[in-house]
Amino acid sequence: MYPQGYLKEHSSALLWAMRILDVMVSLIFCLFAYHHVFGEEAIRPHYEIAIIISVLVQMLVFHAYSLYRAWRGIDYLQEMTVVFLAWVTVFAIQVFLAAITKTTESYSRAWLLLWFTFGGTAIILFRHALRMVLKKMRAKGYNLRHIVIIASGDIGYRAYQTITASPASGFNVIGYFTDDSTPEFDSAQTHVGRLEEVSDFITSHQVDQVWLAAPLSEAILIERIVKELQGTSLDLRLIPDIFGLRLINHSVSNIAGLSVINISVSPMEGISLWIKTLEDKVLATLLLLLVFPLMLVIALAVKVSGPGPVLYRQTRLSWNLREFEMYKFRTMPWGTEDASGPVRATSGEHRATPVGKFLRRTSLDELPQFWNVIKGDMSIVGPRPERPAFVQELKHEVPSYMQKHMVKAGITGWAQVNGWRGDTNMHERIEHDLYYIDNWSLWLDFKIILMTLFTGLVHKNAY
């Protein structure tokens, strides 16, 4: 077994080993794909050039995506998503280079597809295996980072409980120091003391990191601790007590040389915005083509159900409170809301036509919104848009309601596939919408789309 400090002392070498292993895995499956397509034929010169370029591109892209860094304590799905996106980027660059050099016809598409599929799968499985190995090592007390928590208020003990509940993260709290009353600690290995004892404890024990958990109002304490620890080489982390607030996509950024705490920001920026836009445009186009014959049948049924246009336009609010005209198949007699004004649909209402009731129950009245997605007004997945009049009411009634507008509105969403649609609890619906925004990923979008197809189209709350 490795001694406790071995992996930490040799972390740089291990990261270089990972770089080499990633390249080796890619090359192995590149050659496997080549021999599967061309048999035992020697590698052709232009394929050799492409492989060399791909290795260089892979090293640059994987470095740009920060794959070779400590993933300790970071969500498993987040790491795998970044690995997948990096691999996709490598191949996108290769295809782009082939296109601008007009050499796409010189390479086998089967070779590229096999290499992309099996090489990417192998690299992800390698990362998964590495995670499992580290998890087992940490469970046996190896590859740990020894933490001292300096606390003021409840946030310190919450940090302690979070760390001890996640042994696979590899953090071990060996000291907890506070001048407040100390709660009961589960581990006898954690030394509990007063703030004045911190310096002596750090000097006499193997400590890797100090976590300062305190409210931002404790500026004097924070400054004092930082000055005391300036003479050490320890990692110092601040856990501000701001997590009682509803935070969205919170993180720390460096902007114009300033360290900035992002309390609530939209996840739709940079590469995430590009991925989300590409997802929406491609899927909406394919789905619109697929359901177009059905839409023609529905349009005919709506037309014969009564006078008025087939499509119903309604002003809704999307990202950054931008107004847009949302399209639906008309489900009520034309002019129904002229006298009543905007009215929320409720269970048992009798305003819809017989055809309209069926369309609402099956969610088929929403199909024209794929055109809204193509136009850029909406996303396929996101919080459902609301009418301006209702937004003005709800923003005062439902806490954090306005934060749902930090992303584009969607045809379907996390709230809808979990049953929070129609005239249901608005607080629960917003909680689900904000969970989606804070945890957005390509995989979560695909999960919601699949849940919509199998369980979300017909629902008792669809009316």
Order of helices and strands: HHHHHEHEEHEHEEEHEEHHHEHEHHH
**Oligomerization status of the protein chains:** single chain
Share in β-strands: 5-15%
Side by side, the strands of the main sheet go 3-2-1-4-5
Distance between the termini: 63 Å
Broad shape: flat
Residue windows where pLDDT falls under 50 for at least 5 positions:
1-10
Q: What does the largest sheet look like?
A: 5 strands, parallel
| Helix content, binned percent | 40-55%
Rg, Å, rounded: 28 Å
How large is the count of helical segments?
Answer: 16
Mean pLDDT: 81
For the record, the count of structural domains works out to 3
Describe the structure.
This protein is α/β, with parallel strands linked by helices. The protein has helices spanning 6-9, 11-38, 45-64, 76-100, 109-139, 155-164, 198-204, 219-228, 271-304, 337-340, 354-362, 369-375, 388-397, 414-417, 426-438, 442-456; strands spanning 145-151, 171-178, 191-193, 209-214, 235-240, 251-255, 258-262, 311-317, 323-329, 379-381, 410-412. Helix 2 (11-38) runs antiparallel to helix 3 (45-64) and helix 2 runs antiparallel to helix 5. The radius of gyration is 28 Å and the shape is flat.
Q: What are the salient characteristics of this protein?
A:
463 residues, alpha/beta, Rossmann fold, 3 domains, five-stranded parallel sheet, 16 helices, 11 strands, flat
In short:
50% of the residues lie in helices and 13% in strands. It has helices at 6-9, 11-38, 45-64, 76-100, 109-139, 155-164, 198-204, 219-228, 271-304, 337-340, 354-362, 369-375, 388-397, 414-417, 426-438, 442-456; strands spanning 145-151, 171-178, 191-193, 209-214, 235-240, 251-255, 258-262, 311-317, 323-329, 379-381, 410-412.
